[in-house]
Design a protein that fits this description.
single chain; 650 residues; alpha/beta; Rossmann fold; five-stranded mixed beta sheet; four-stranded mixed beta sheet; 26 helices; metal ion binding
Amino acid sequence: MNNLLDKCCDKCTHEPQNPCRDFIKCIKEGPICHDDAACRQKRQELLANIHLPVGSDKKNILICAGTGCTSSGSKKLVDVLKEELQKHNLTDKVKITITGCHGFCEQGPLMIVEPDKTFYVRVQDTDVPEIVEQNLVGGQVVERLLYKDHTTGELSKTYNDVPFYAKQQRLVLHNCGHINPEDVGEYIANDGYAGFVKALFEMTPEEVIEDVKKSGLRGRGGAGFPTGMKWGFVRQAQGDKKYVVCNADEGDPGAFMDRSVLEGDPHAVLEGMMICGYAVGADEGYIYVRAEYPLAIERLKIAIAQAEQYGILGDNILNSGFNFHIKIKAGAGAFVCGEETALLTSIEGNRGMPRVRPPFPAQSGLWGKPTNLNNVETYANVPYILRNGGENYAKLGTEKSKGTKIFALTGKVNNTGLVEVPMGMTLRDIIFTIGGGIQNGKKFKAVQIGGPSGGCIPEENLDLPVDYDSLTAAGAMMGSGGLVVMDETTCMVDVAKFFLTFTQSESCGKCTPCREGTKRMLEILTRICDGEGKMEDLDTLERLGRVVKNTALCGLGQTCPNPILSTMRYFKDEYIAHIQDKRCPAGACSALLVFKIDPEKCKGCGKCAKNCPAGAITGEKKEPHVIDATKCIKCGSCLLGCKFDAIYKA
């Protein structure tokens, strides 16, 4: 930790364990208890080391230490960089800052050199000496490490020049990739805890709730319930004990929004929970985070310890009389625990299974006490709302969907990663402007939005604005923010089968519609993909989907038919082709594949025969070869190995 939170001089009356209510203001603006020029100057110098002014002779190198970049070797960059700085006597002139996820995971490991904001991508430890010599010593940019646009070939020198970031509006993610998540001082230097202090000393709990209502913030975990309204229910509920719970059980395949916020800006989540605790009358909070997120858990523990050390969290916070404690509960990875009542049951030490509602958690939640439960992104929005006012926040987004939304953009798209966009931006802008279009020049087919319980949106709906109501009308849902892009090689029947396989295996089995309905639907989809389907299966699928959707106990069962219903709505011709023609139009279902060799293109080189593990290909040298369909195991090795494009899927 840096010295931002330390006492500046002996005149300071603030003790780390017993700070006054002006603690945050003192840090940001200088001493409140006395007017000492030297003390004030020291504060300014400390803040300047975090926010380097343009033209500064000092440098700050930001290195992404999120899970994605760490797995690509970013930790090595820190070690090598320290060695190189020592060689060039730059240790005192260059600061190294580890950060959370920048979002542009596909280009990691990432490095930013401030104050010029030079943005380097896919940096390896072997590149560090060149960066130090050419950039830090010589003042020249290492062009080969700059981002290069997929279509235009243009280089982007700075972070803000990269098209991936240009159309984003990063409110929740504004600190991620720019501050050290393990240093509470850097969080405070970026207006951290200012919203909490404002709520605590300038607003009543009812005024805080009203401000959140004015913001129009809706829950970012899936259903989109108005946050302020939920807080109001908990505030009004009778009980001698109340709880605030954060749902960080992010289980959607391909989703990593919550993980990145927890890794990159954990104090924002703590602050949001503390504001909520003050507003609803709770003194204890739990963060339910899956055990598969070890880095997020580690940084949460650090953040909680630092906040407690400086009296921002704990008993009698800032001498206000308000008490609030936060504990971490590591989940075992059950997808159903993303459902609020199953999550609460798991915290209580029981098997995570949903409860019948009502009563809702706002009346009877954790251990039967009134409980407010929001997800990571929802809480992380709250500090911004309190700092800037609910009415200002409400200016962002659409009429019924305010603010921004974070998406994990994955699949067959050039720029994968974490994006935060204003509500109402079209899918086309997200996929083709921010995402850089479809990989390898292939044709866009669909986008799965909302995770395994979401729906598939086709090309004709690419101009659909991303908001809660528009997506629901299109047969999808906002969900937690998974966005999986598919191209022409994707079979939509197989996609529905893939997601249903996931939800069926994750069903807790408590209610019959979900337990039996998902199994029957999966059996039908498997038959269709294997070429054994019947036309009446389509009616059965749709009927089963509606029944499960309307009668399942919890959100997992109620939404798991969405991939089936949406693909049948927009891609029914593919289902019919599988059933009537025994053909997979995308060539993805192996049971329906037939590999053939074009005799006019085949040169008789024999490579395909050598590669075939089943011995299904025969032919004389320099003569067209043939494939014996009865022996072919449809592995595709012949197709991948042919240099003459003579082999094709029939």
